[in-house]
């Protein structure tokens, strides 16, 4: 197996965990299978950089001294908001030469500014998805997944999702067992798929300000198989259905139906991952009623059927 060179691009204002998280994953892979990776870090002039948290990172060399890498990884951080034109130009010139382009968090902004994401489906930290889409209309921005892989370009959401993406790349290079060993060593989950939402249903929606609406939100999460029609939920909040629907969306940022859909999908995924319950039982417990209704929801949201989801993401020890 040929050795793969990994280059981490450093700059002032970089998010330290965007660098160290993936770096620890790839270093763990090199320890597990020596000769797999050669990891390098570089800044524009080869000098130290100060991270957004105040740490100082000392790169191995200057970007101009580094041979074209197999995998080019661009982290995010405050420094991406006012990037150096020289760094953008370096990425524009050298990015296309890499076999794999990877960004963590707002590192996607740097890749987009260099024109390397045009025509690609990508993601970034949820707080900057709207900005990325607005500033770069040729880029298809998906705000939901924790990471997206489109051909040789891989982008991830905020901070810790860079670890998930790095594990996925290691699994591609060395196999699932190697990635599992590394995940266990780092005490992280291997089974977070890229299409997992950046937020759980409860976090994706804002918490309602009024007590009755907050109580309805909580009731939904605790009773996914209950009667969750707008009429039934409105009655719990002692509001008319129309007033309830308007107030719920105004205070949570999503419609009651969208919130219910997310809660049920999250509940079903958790049961598929953590239990041996049958598909029919899970579909009833999650409020879908029938396996076919659950299958349609999974395909629509995740692009895969429940049985395939379980096969891919349930720990081997649970089978």
UniProtKB/TrEMBL annotation:
Domain of life according to the entry: Bacteria
Stretches assigned to the HTH araC/xylS-type domain: 214-312
CDD domains with a match to the protein in the record: GATase1_AraC_1
PROSITE patterns the record matches: HTH_ARAC_FAMILY_2
SUPFAM superfamilies reported in the protein's UniProt record: Class I glutamine amidotransferase-like, Homeodomain-like
Keyword terms, alphabetized: Transcription, Transcription regulation
Cited InterPro entries: Class_I_gatase-like, DJ-1/PfpI, Homeodomain-like_sf, HTH_AraC, INH-QAR
Gene Ontology terms, MF aspect: DNA-binding transcription factor activity; sequence-specific DNA binding
Name of the protein in question: AraC family transcriptional regulator
Organism whose genome encodes this protein: Streptomyces diastatochromogenes
